[in-house]
# Entry
Amino acid sequence: MHKYFFLILFFVAGVVTPSSAQVDIETVAREAILVDAETNTVLFEKNADVLMHPASMSKLMTVAMVFDRLADGSLKMEDTFPVSESAWRIQGSKMFVELGSRISVGDLLRGIIVQSGNDACVVVAEGIGGDEQNFARMMTERAREIGMTHSQFRNASGWPDPEHLMTARDLATLASYLINTHKEYYKIFSEIDFTWHGIKQGNRNPLLYSYPGADGLKTGHTEEAGYGLTGSVQRNGRRLIVVATGMDSVKRRGIEAERLLTLGFNEFENYTLLSAGQKLDDADVWLGEENTIPVVAAKDIRMTLPRAARKSLQAKLVYQTPLAAPVAEGAEVGTVTFTATGMEPVTIPVVAAGTVEKIGFLGKIPAAFNYLLWGASSG
# Structure
């Protein structure tokens, strides 16, 4: 038979389990998503899977392509790429590259991240992909590998194109990838200004100037896309990622991103629920050399919950009893499921904490008799 019961929760050290917990939030953003980066929990979303024009926020994918190559050693910061006429002529925000010159990867990254240079993006695209069209195909392919299921790229800069599209969720996924996979290079996103060709330009990310703990990532604007921001803030051991798009002004973009982040920090908290190997119960064993075996959590579990929902958190342990010997250490024997108001249930496996061998033939008859009379805890 199955054994069901609710656990008393002990809060201990642990790590991560994805979840979803949301509260009612209004936003003027056309598309938005707010994510706890540690637990990958969506705190709020609005039209998060709607394809939209990302403008310069899609430069994050161009940056990811460079970071990947720096990480695998196929590029170095000191390597240089040539400036073509197409890069030199492109309009919009610029790094102000010089035709015929060669620029280092490190400078080009700052030209993209800090100055939002469309010209720097074209130089990188041609340097890695041969031409911008091929590089855009490479961007789309890599995006799928990262887990960005909807995005499609037609250029390296976010220059308006009806088929150059992303979603807010994909932008959050990309931000998380840059933060977690490329910690060494991610710090460039927090640089306030960069000077190239005698021209000093400030980082367009308003969070860097006004919101404590902000360290990235990228703004975007075109007439069709409106004003958008993909941002991240680390504060008191927590990191939040926000994407907000389609707003009507630079001022509104900054205000709304800050408001959503503040709600995320104030209304939610991360709770450690179980650690791997934590004992949950002693399971009866049928015809084993031991009568019981500890049942433990298979992995650490940490969740983000609305503060108001904390009191409603429950954990339900379910496993088959008795366990038939032999029982192998680490064998999955059941599950523990966590539920709370406003969140999707989270289930993790529970496993046997040791090995129990099957008793020999001569011991089976008295053991079976004792079990029928008294249960597995006898003898």
In short: Confidence is low (pLDDT under 50) at residues 5-19.
